Amino acid sequence: MRKVQWGTAVLLAIYMCILAYVCFFSEGYGRTAVDGYHYNLIPFREIMRFYTYREYVGFSAFMLNLFGNVLAFAPFGFAVPVLSRMNRRFVNVAWLTFILSLTIELLQLMLKVGSFDVDDLLLNTLGGMIGYGVFFAVNHIRRKCFAR
């Protein structure tokens, strides 16, 4: 394994530990429900709710819900193609990001920790795709500038 891949594997392991902490153990980010466990199975429902009530929940809560989920999964979308040439296809990275997000959401549903939200699946997968886009751009620049 090349040094870049090894370093990426270490960073991905650290990232996965932080992601697990935030999703399952952190007191913040919706981990504690005030009046019972909540879940959302209707696409765009929570996104629209946060947008509609952004003045009440606060701009930072709105931005955290929308962009936090996207940004949280961008590193995964960047790291996967670095680790494996087989996963350098956009579809593979999108699929793997969706599977990771679905696993987290289903665990939250079964363990009643946080909340299962189909919008999170959409936003997390979008984040992975954005991470892949960054990888693709960086890899393209690397190949042009450092080609031998």
TrEMBL record:
Q: Where is the VanZ-like domain?
A: 13-137
The alphabetical list of record keywords is: Membrane, Transmembrane, Transmembrane helix
What InterPro entries does this protein's entry cite? Teicoplanin_resist-assoc (IPR053150), VanZ-like (IPR006976)
The protein depicted here goes by the name VanZ family protein
Q: Which organism is it from?
A: Candidatus Onthocola gallistercoris
Its transmembrane ranges are 7-29, 56-78, 90-109, 121-141
Q: Which PANTHER family match?
A: INTEGRAL MEMBRANE PROTEIN, MEMBRANE PROTEIN-RELATED
Instruction: State one Pfam family annotation.
Output: VanZ
Leader sequence residues: none
